[in-house]
Amino acid sequence: MKTQHKSLNEKNNRKASTKRSTTLFIVLLGVVSLFADMTHEGARSVYGPFLALLGANATIVGIVAGFGELVGYALRLVSGYITDKTAKYWTITIIGYVINMLAVPLLALAGRWEVAAFFIIAERAGKAIRNPVRDAMLSHATHEIGRGWGFGLHEAMDTTGAMLGPLIVAAVLYFKGTYQTGFAFLLIPALLTIGVLIFARFLYPHPRDLEATKPEVETKGLPRVYWIYLSAMALIAAGYADFPVIAYHFQKTSVVPGNWVPIFYSVAMGSAAIAALIFGRLFDRKGIPVVIIAVLLSSVFAPLVFLGGFYLSLAGMALWGVGMGAHESVMRAAVAEMNVVRRASLSLWHFQYRLWSVR
Residue 258 burial (CB < 10 Å; 0-12/13-18/19+)? Predict the structure, then answer.
């Protein structure tokens, strides 16, 4: 009896230790994402007005934003495939983050919209390289604490950075700084991102080991439920507008003053952070119906943003953020729960979902 009791205690201690370790790993990647989103989302909040200032028209802004997103998600297929073949999680992740982070402060040197467009697309490409690998590492860790909560916790930290970044840019503009000055300030969180990432790499050199119980996976193809789910999410994404287009609308119609545009984006990211935590926890308890609720809540953002005045546009941005928070938490968690090869499927999921959204 004593031997059985001791064995049970040891098992519980190992489980608690594993849970602490995986939670710390998720938090570390969350800190990386916090600083990263502070950097690229701070810049993204003013891409539309910045391109307009450099002489780009609405068509050019839409093409740059759309093509940047297309590149940013098409490359995920390549990144996911290479990661599966080489298992070089950290090498590919670090390369992606370096490109993603350094492209933002380099925008401070752009004097023409063509140059700015190049750096914007490079920033999206860097994100494409690192995201599937990061999500694969997260999928190993979230198995121990719950998919929804794990992805939700990470996304909440991610969008906290996305909320702070636009506020930094807004503060620079408030004190009569230029867009270029704002991009230069974002070099600080960019360097912090790379520093914390390298620290996490040395602390957790083998992320696969975080998943104590190996799931059964299919290697011959993706299941029918995956394609049904993906088709539904693609249709949802077709109704989503990218923020540079929304920001350009605000700038040209003067519905929202220029200094307020990054603040509106910050509000959206704040609502995304809260939504990620709430829907992530609910997903672990209720499953797919939670995704449906998130979709219904966010579906009315477009008329509020594009047809409403200042306050209706603000409400619309909050709902837009709810949809983004749900996409980056519970929708990813649902894919990770399916019995498929997670690395390839996550990159394929992101590519097809966002391909529809950039149209």
Answer: middle
Tokens of 191: 């360097």
Tokens of 113: 């919209």
What is the predicted pLDDT for the residue at 107? 96
- Phi, psi at residue 269, to the nearest 5°? -70, -35
**What whole-number distance in Å separates Cα of residue 170 and Cα of residue 182?**
8
* Domain extent listing, the chain: 12-204+219-358
Cα–Cα dist 67/355, whole Å: 10
CATH topology of domain 12-204+219-358: Growth Hormone; Chain: A; (1.20.1250)
Cα–Cα distance between 151 and 166 in angstroms, integer?
Answer: 23
Residue-wise pLDDT for 166-188, tens only, equals 889 989 988 888 999 999 999 99
Alpha-helix residue ranges (DSSP H) falling in the chain: 2-44, 47-53, 58-86, 89-106, 113-145, 147-174, 179-185, 187-203, 224-238, 243-253, 261-286, 289-298, 301-307, 310-326, 332-337, 342-358
